[in-house]
Structure formats: structure tokens, C-alpha cells
Design a protein that fits this description.
Layout: E1 2-7, H1 24-44, E2 51-54, H2 58-71, E3 78-79, H3 89-97, E4 103-108, H4 112-121, E5 132-137, E6 145-151
Parallel strand pairs: 1-4, 2-3, 2-4
Antiparallel strand pairs: 1-5, 5-6
Helix pairs in contact: 1-2
């Protein structure tokens, strides 16, 4: 399985947490890094993810929509209520493992994204806004993944 994890772009602080929208800086970060992601996927010959999953929070939804547009992902992305900042790593790993898809992109939040990378790979990565990390694994479980690369703005 190839798993691409992305933290949403920079968000405005003018609304309650669940309603925060991307700032202009956040949009630039996401578009820039999504372009780098597309280049990386093309160089690797990996193709686009078979599934794009997002947190239900507005800033993650906006990030997923921008990424889909930049990389040419034509399917509708899926919203998972469980991939919020305080998500449970084991629960999300099990859900991803049950997806039946070998190339998934997940747009989510801190601290979950950094905790999930460490849970899957035993590597510590701080995911600043719009960070994208690619992991590969045979089974989606604790310590089973390899951190392939990271894109940071």
C-alpha cells in the first residue's frame, strides 16, 4: 500500500476550530505542494491515488479540493469523520487497511498526522502546514510502514 498523508494548509484564526478556512497563504502552500506531489508521482510512475480521503473540517476539505484540482483527481473525495486532529492511530490504520485500495491519500491535521507517521514508521516528522509524506507498507499497522519521502513548503 502507498499512503500519502497531507496536513491541511495554513488556516485563518477568525472562526471556531471546525469552521476555519484556508488563508491565502494556505491556498498557496497547498497549490505549490500539490504541484510538487504531481511531479513526484509522474517521476515515480505511481499514478494518482485511487482514493482521496479528507477530514470533515473545512480547512481539510478545502485542501482536498485544491489538491484534487491540481493533480487531476476526478473522483469525488471521501469524508471520514474520524480523521480529526485527535484521531486514534490504530482505528484509522484499521480503517485504511479495510479500504481495499493500494494507493490512498489522506488529508488531515496536527497532531494526528505526525503521530500517525510515527505510529506507522517509527520515524518522527513534524508536519507543518501543507506537508505531504509518502509511506509504503504491506499492511497498514503499527511499525509496518517505510517513510519514502516528505514535501514541505
Amino acid at each position: 500500500m502507498k499512503l500519502i498523508l497531507m496536513r491541511h494548509g495554513d488556516a485563518m484564526m477568525t472562526r471556531p476550530d471546525h469552521q476555519r478556512r484556508l488563508s491565502e497563504q494556505g491556498r498557496r502552500e497547498v497549490q505549490h505542494n500539490a504541484g510538487l506531489l504531481l511531479e513526484r508521482l509522474q517521476v515515480e510512475g505511481a499514478g494518482l491515488p485511487g482514493k482521496l480521503i479528507s477530514s470533515p473540517l473545512v480547512r481539510a476539505q478545502e485542501t482536498a479540493a485544491l489538491v484534487a484540482s491540481v493533480i487531476g483527481f476526478s473522483e469525488a473525495f471521501v469524508t471520514w469523520p474520524s480523521v480529526v486532529p485527535e484521531a486514534d492511530c490504530l482505528q484509522v490504520a484499521e480503517a485504511l487497511g479495510n479500504e481495499g485500495c493500494d494507493h490512498i491519500m489522506l488529508v488531515t491535521h496536527q497532531p494526528f498526522v505526525s503521530m500517525f507517521i510515527q505510529f506507522l514508521t517509527d520515524k518522527v516528522v513534524f508536519a507543518d502546514t501543507a506537508t505531504i509524506a509518502c509511506l509504503s507498507m504491506e499492511v497498514c499497522g503499527q511499525g509496518c510502514g517505510v517513510l519514502e519521502w516528505v514535501i514541505q513548503y
